[in-house]
Design brief:
The chain has two domains: 13-134, Urate Oxidase; 145-277, Roll (Urate Oxidase). The strands form three sheets. Strands 1-2-3-6-7-8-9-12 form an eight-stranded antiparallel beta sheet. A two-stranded antiparallel ribbon has the order 4-5. The protein has a two-stranded antiparallel ribbon with strand order 10-11. With 279 residues, it is an alpha+beta fold. The protein is built from five helices and twelve strands. The relative contact order is 0.10. It has helices at residues 41-45, 55-69, 74-88, 192-209, 215-229, and strands at 13-20, 25-38, 92-102, 105-109, 112-119, 125-133, 136-150, 175-185, 233-242, 245-247, 262-264, 270-277. Strand 6 (125-133) and strand 7 form a beta hairpin. It is globular and about 75 Å long. Helix 2 crosses helix 3 (74-88) and helix 4 (192-209) runs antiparallel to helix 5. The structure holds uric acid. Uric acid binds at residues 156, 167, 214-216, 242, 270.
Length: 279
């Protein structure tokens, strides 16, 4: 017997930060998860902890380094942390730092942004996973829990019909999803903020403009558009669950349902995933 692939670290280091400017405050809230890989065989086989940087120390490192080094994007903070763990610990061959950022929006009254009050509550999060090993750092950024819905320009027809198929073909249905997207960058010295905003807009624009023949069709169109617009993106992965809105049968009450009334179902749901890569 021998030890196979293994890693350890602290998950969900929840951290918030106020950045105080003279006339306004910034507020950031992130969840950081650290996973370290390397020479930890004897910890597993002998109970020898001499090579183990405790996960408690990893957690403290995140909070301490945030004071000076979490001033910009989550990608920059992730790069700093991953580099820190790998370069200070010879037994660590690879660090993986995953960061999720919660979306807080500044309140605004009569067109005036408030100096220190925010609204939250949207499910959407910005994400990054930075891995660093001997080959250098790699940044995969994205978003998750982005709720998207369109009320037309979506259909699902010409699918297989067998003895168990009852689904009706439709050329006009609701398309709704809780989108997760991630894209790998080809470099690490990038304007991550501008790229994120551009890619998110491209995702939203393609979702809304696309004449969708299926979720799969839209998933590919979104990935393709992000790759076309951004040379620095190597590949795009998307998770697009199909959050069904099923037409309610009004005929049983003597009424016609002109594609207006639906049953919004939570489960079961279609689960569509895919990665779009360059040729
Ligand atoms: O866009 C869709 N893709 C499917 O694979 C599928 N399957 C299904 O029942 N409805 C849908 N919709």
């Amino acid at each position: 017997m021998k030890l196979g692939i293994n890693a350890y670290g602290k998950n969900a280091v929840n951290l918030s930060k106020i950045i105080r400017h003279a006339d306004h405050h910034e507020f950031r809230q992130v969840s950081v998860s650290v996973q370290l890989s390397g020479d930890f065989d004897t910890a597993h086989t002998l109970g020898d902890n001499s090579q183990i940087l405790p996960t408690d120390t990893q957690k403290n490192t995140v909070y301490v380094l945030a004071k000076e080094h979490f001033t910009g994007t989550i990608e920059e903070f992730g790069l700093y942390l991953a580099h820190y763990f790998v370069t200070r610990n010879p037994q660590i061959s690879k660090a993986r730092v995953a960061i999720e950022e919660h979306s807080w929006q500044r309140m605004s009254f009569d067109g005036q942004p408030h100096t220190h009050s925010f609204t939250g509550g949207t499910t959407e999060k910005r994400t990054t996973v930075v891995t660093q090993d001997a080959a250098g750092p790699v940044v995969v950024s994205g978003l998750k829990d982005l709720l998207l819905l369109k009320t037309t320009d979506s259909g699902f027809e010409n699918f297989i019909k067998d003895e168990y198929t009852v689904l009706k073909e439709t050329s006009d249905r609701i398309l709704a999803t809780q989108c997760e997207a991630s894209w790998e960058y080809t470099a690490t010295a990038l304007d991550f903020e501008a790229l994120y905003q551009q890619i998110r807009t491209s995702l939203l624009h393609t979702f809304s403009a696309h004449k969708s023949l299926s979720v799969q069709h839209t998933l590919y169109a979104i990935g393709e558009q992000i790759l076309l617009d951004n040379d620095v993106v190597k590949e795009v992965s998307l998770v697009m669950p199909n959050k069904h809105h099923i037409p309610f049968n009004l005929e049983q009450f003597g009424l016609e349902n002109k594609n207006e009334i639906f049953v919004a179902t939570d489960a079961p749901f279609g689960y569509i995933t895919g990665t779009v890569v360059r040729d």
